[in-house]
């Protein structure tokens, strides 16, 4: 029990330390340094909370696709492509982008809850 408390304390300390560092030049799903960024990508790169949401979304998506059977994986990838079009339609609208990420993260959470797990 004591080790867990120390580990949690260390990860919290690491999080505080890292939060003071400059923003990375990339969101998880694209390079923020590209010259041809779309309007939604520019806003995501410039808005820390959206950048963080992008990192969480793509990390969750990658983990889920690695856990799913092939048939379900294809469905999840199709849903991701449809969601990306929806995100792109937000353009520079920060609230639209926040809502899009919130919706997608909720969908990915549901997909995780519905994974077939071995007994």
Helix tally equals 5
Strand content: under 5%
Q: How does the helix and strand content classify structurally?
A: mainly alpha
Q: Stretches where pLDDT falls below 50 for ≥5 residues? A: 1-23
- Report on the biggest sheet: 2 strands, antiparallel
Note the run of SSEs as H and E: HEEHHHH
Distance between the termini: 27 Å
Number of strands: 2
> What share of residues is helical?
over 70%
The general outline is elongated
How do the strands line up in the largest sheet? 1-2
Describe this structure in words.
- The N terminus is likely disordered.
- It contains five helices and two strands, in the order H-E-E-H-H-H-H.
- 72% of the residues lie in helices and 3% in strands.
- The two termini are 27 Å apart.
- Strands 1-2 form a two-stranded antiparallel sheet.
- It is mostly helical and 119 residues long.
């Amino acid at each position: 029990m004591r080790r867990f408390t120390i580990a949690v304390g260390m990860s919290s300390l690491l999080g505080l330390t890292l939060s003071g560092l400059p923003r990375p030049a990339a969101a998880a799903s694209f390079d923020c340094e590209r010259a041809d960024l779309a309007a939604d990508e520019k806003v995501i790169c410039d808005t820390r909370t959206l950048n963080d949401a992008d990192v969480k979304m793509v990390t969750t998506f990658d983990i889920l696709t690695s856990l799913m059977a092939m048939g379900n994986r294809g469905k999840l990838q199709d849903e991701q492509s449809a969601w990306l079009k929806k995100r792109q339609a937000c353009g520079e609208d920060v609230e639209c982008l926040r809502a899009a990420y919130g919706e997608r993260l909720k969908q990915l959470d549901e997909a995780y809850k519905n994974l077939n797990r071995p007994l």
